[in-house]
Amino acid sequence: MTREEIENGSEDMVIDEIEPVNGERTEMNAVPDGFNATYLKVYYGKLFPHADIFKWLSYGNDGKHPGCDKSYFGRREFSYTLDNDIYLRFQSFNSASELENSIKEKCPFKIDIGPVYSVDPAKRHAYAQSGNNVFTPVEKELVFDIDITDYDDVRYCCSGADVCLDCWPLMTVAIKVIDTALRDDFGFNHILWVYSGRRGVHCWVCDGKARRLTNEQRSSIAEYFRVYKGNENSQKKVSLMGQGLHPFLLRSYTEVLEDFFKTKWLSSQVLFSTEERYEKILEMIPDESITSELRGKWQDSRRSSVSKEDINVVRWEQLKHLLQSGKHKEKGLRRCVEEIVFSNTYPRLDMEVSKHMNHLLKAPFCIHPKTGRVCVPIDPNRCEEFDPTAVPTLSKLLEEINMGGLGTDVDNEWDRTSLGKSITFFRSSFLQPLLKSCKEEIENSYSAKLRHSENSLSW
Length: 459
Prior knowledge:
Structural class: alpha+beta
Helix content: 40-55%
Oligomer: single chain
Order of helices and strands: HHHEEHEHEEHEEHHHHHHHHEEHH
Number of helices: 16
Largest sheet: 5 strands, antiparallel
């Protein structure tokens, strides 16, 4: 391959192609790990699902039905982050081909999706000069952003941007808790969970009634989920008020949090293994007599025969027994057990992301520039099986293209890569049911308008 071809990043290029030996490609087709614009051009040219993103964000307004809004997709804001942190906001497109051509041409390192505005965001200045304040967001998916760095005060295996299979289950718990509430408590159906590419997850709630929520309504939903209110300087980060837990919190506790804390989190983070760690737990108990009693037991247990493997569970059971025993009937103390569990395991949302319609969020199937991983969808019904370390990477995908060779008779390039199952899931479990619902909504609205028009004429 010539230097010019590499620099131009042709869609049909093969990275580090090695001639076949006896008709087979060798392991030398491996692509060096990393993230760069050359790799990205190939990804956008061959693998990125441009058409599916267009279908999703059109919500049935594709021009095929007389009742659809043909301007809908063109009023959606996209933003690009280019090489050298060049940031382009208020990009808009009128068709799938315009979107695809722009992405291929500009090769953004990150694509963010914003709201649907009242007018084309690319022409906002022209409307501003008219003197009328008509440029305003009118629709946006209800979104949630959960970042594992917000749990750094309770995870000991990693910190900052690092994540491993011991602390990633916090994201699994978050998906289970939030997804169940969105469906059962709010009645939403079309929910997309996406791996952020590094250290968290994003949630897109795409029902029509969710997209049309006001900022005040979004804030109310976000506050519904808010339990974690502390900071790194707070001894008590969760305060569960009232005579009993709210039904949503009770369900979350009994169905997800309690078992996860006892069977996985205690041992994976060895929360009671050292004095420094168990003191952080004891600080959450307001009764000094109880903390002194537990502290004495645990300091003495260093000379006991309790095995190293179960010391965390043993000490947790001792704490629970003491707080929930008959002599401590004060509800505030009995509630401490639940507060400790919630403080360690309950989802910690970036509240501002959910509250405002004009907040942008990274598009699915982007590549994270720090890890090279694809932002793939996560099945909430099988989220415990999701392994962030096994997500397809940019270099792996290009290597798989090389191994398959050019011109292979497949419908799509991704069908012969590890990205294929993620796109198939996106289509079958999320996009197709969503579009079916959207088209029914458009048809019902159109029919209602026709009936209203006919009634007006007959009158």
